[in-house]
Amino acid sequence: MRIVVVGGVAAGLSAASRARRVDPSAEILVFEKGKRISYGACGLPYLLEGQVSSIEQLVVYRPEFFERERNIRIRTESEVVAVHHGRREAVLRSGERVRYDRLVWAAGARPARVSRSPRVFRLHTDEDALRLEEYLGRERPQTAAVVGGGYIGLEAATALRARGLRVRLHHDATTLLNREDPWVTKRIVERLEQCGVDVRLNEPVDPEALDAGLVIDATGLRPNVEVLAEAGAALGRTGALAVSERMETSLYGVFAAGDCCEARHVVSGRDVWIPLGTTANKMGRVAGANAAGRRERFQGVAGTSIVRVAGLAAAVTGLSQQQARREGFSPVEAVVEGREKAKYFFGRTIGVQLVADRNSRRLLGAAVTGDDGVLARINTVAAALAARMDAETFAGIDLAYAPPYAAVMDPLLVCAGQLLRLLDS
Ligand SMILES: Cc1cc2nc3c(=O)[nH]c(=O)nc-3n(C[C@H](O)[C@H](O)[C@H](O)COP(=O)(O)OP(=O)(O)OC[C@H]3O[C@@H](n4cnc5c(N)ncnc54)[C@H](O)[C@@H]3O)c2cc1C
Q1: Taking each helix axis from N to C terminus, what angle separates 63-70 and 10-22, rounded to the nearest 10 degrees?
Q2: Separation of CA 411 and ligand 1 centre (Å)
Q3: Whose CA is closest to atom 20 on ligand 1?
Q4: Which pLDDT band, with edges at 50, 70 and 90, does 391 fall under?
Q5: 281 CA to middle of ligand 1, Å?
Q6: Residues near 392 by Cβ (< 8 Å), separated by ≥ 6?
Q7: Residue 218's closest CA among 115, 314, 143, 317?
Q8: Which residues contact 162 (CB under 8 A, 6 or more apart)?
Q9: Measured in angstroms, how far is the CA atom of residue 5 from the centroid of ligand 1?
Q10: Is 33 in the pocket of ligand 1 (CB under 6 A)?
Q11: What pLDDT, on a 0 to 100 scale, did the predictor assign at position 114?
Q12: What is the 8-class DSSP label of residue 225?
């Protein structure tokens, strides 16, 4: 059996590695159109900020590793430009035709907008980061404008500010992080302004027309679906590839994983497109196992994510109140501020927001912000969402406590208590 994987980063390599574990005898071939494989794009903002010294530090494995240790063939600079599923054939840009028994499409996403201006950059691939770095070194711009208030825009603004540039952040909506959550937005904006970033919300702009020495266009992504759609694979309501729980597309034997496809939202039950690296890895594992003959299921996503904005961690999971209302729930929101650990251990302030449905009392989402202790709290709520927990059960969970690590009454539980009172009122 020959399994062909398209895309050599998070989803593609997870799929190839898992397929190898499931089927030691399969022939596995990965095509990647770029020069590098297996690098963490998530680290690019830290390269820009200077916390990571070279792009090579972001490379997890090299092709030789996969060939030697996993018997997986990797071909870089090899773009798949067509798929003829009837003949089980992928066509490379060079014209070469490659037969497959199973195909895993893990081609990711790309920035939605393309600019020709030499001052406008994006921060999506290793090559983008290298170009940006070269420009910063050569032109030494004093000012920067970042367009887009998703996590990449926020990370880019933070990084450029840390390098000493005067930074303006433009976002076309009133709320950041694609979250429709004024509470999280307010806390992020406060922190950005404290560190000197000029934040302009609800202000649509044309990146090419902005007056700044450097512009980063972080206005959004589009899934790489065209080749597979052309081959007959169905797209979902979001425009990304539609997949089953087994990560199979509408074409039998063709799987998809990562930023190019949709996933079921564990709270709303709807298909959504929330492209994230952690999701890509998990989807890739399921797609790879199933391509190699197993029957595994991808559980879905809650959109759990965390971003560092000038030292502030802002994390979200599930639905915000506004999103929940749009999904047909009757949401109730509670917010508290507390210490993430004992005062005598220099516990810092942490903000917690919980959302639950008034009718079913089911927990729907959360946001947590603070300088420390944010990750553990958001992950606790993510686990509760996966278990479809109600607010009562959540308010009684047995969380660990010792003064150097936690507060005796954790802010999560204090917030859950507040939520119960609101649900009962
Ligand atoms: C700056 C930045 C910061 C991020 N930070 C985080 C974070 O903190 N946390 C988080 O969870 N996620 C983060 N992400 C998102 C994460 O990097 C992506 O979700 C993840 O890389 C998706 O993996 P993927 O394998 O689906 O797609 P990609 O990583 O995009 O890989 C797809 C690969 O397919 C190749 N390809 C495309 N078309 C073809 C073709 N036709 N033939 C051959 N090869 C092809 C591409 O060249 C690409 O290398 C960040 C992303 C960026 C850009």
Answers
A1: 10
A2: 35
A3: 277
A4: very high
A5: 10
A6: 361, 420
A7: 115
A8: 49, 50, 310
A9: 14
A10: yes
A11: 87
A12: -
Taking CA 229 as the corner, what is the angle to CA 228 and CA 234, rounded to the nearest 5 degrees? 115
CB under 8 Å to 210, separation ≥6 — which residues?
Answer: 145, 147, 168, 170
Provide the β-strand partners of residue 350.
338, 370
pLDDT digit string, tens, across residues 9-52: 999 999 999 999 999 999 999 999 999 998 889 999 999 999 99
The residue type found at 155 is E
Residues annotated as part of the active site: 42
Mean pLDDT of 5-9: 97
Determine the Cα–Cα distance for residues 196 and 76; give it in Å rounded to an integer. Answer: 42
- In which residue are the tokens 């990304």 written? 240
* pLDDT, position 39: 87
Those residues whose C-beta lies under 8 Å from the C-beta of residue 397, and which sit 6 or more positions away, are 380, 384, 413
Locate the ligand 1 atom nearest the alpha carbon of residue 260 and give its number.
26
Name the burial class of residue 68, with classes exposed (0-12), middle (13-18) and buried (19+) by CB atoms within 10 angstroms of its CB.
exposed
- The model's pLDDT over 131-189, given as tens digits with 9 standing for 90+, comes to 999 999 999 999 999 999 999 999 999 999 999 999 999 999 999 999 999 999 999 99
For 65-134, give the DSSP string.
HHHHHH--EEESS--EEEEEGGGTEEEETTS-EEE-SEEEE---EEES-----TTEE--SSHHHHHHHHH
Query: Does residue 58 have its Cβ closer than 6 Å to ligand 1?
Result: no
pTM of the model: 0.96
Question: 393: which 2 tokens?
Answer: 């059960």
Q: Position 410: which residue type?
A: D
Written in H, E and C, the secondary structure of 372-409 is: CCHHHHHHHHHHHHHCCCEHHHHHCCCCCCCCCCCCCC
pLDDT at 40: 87
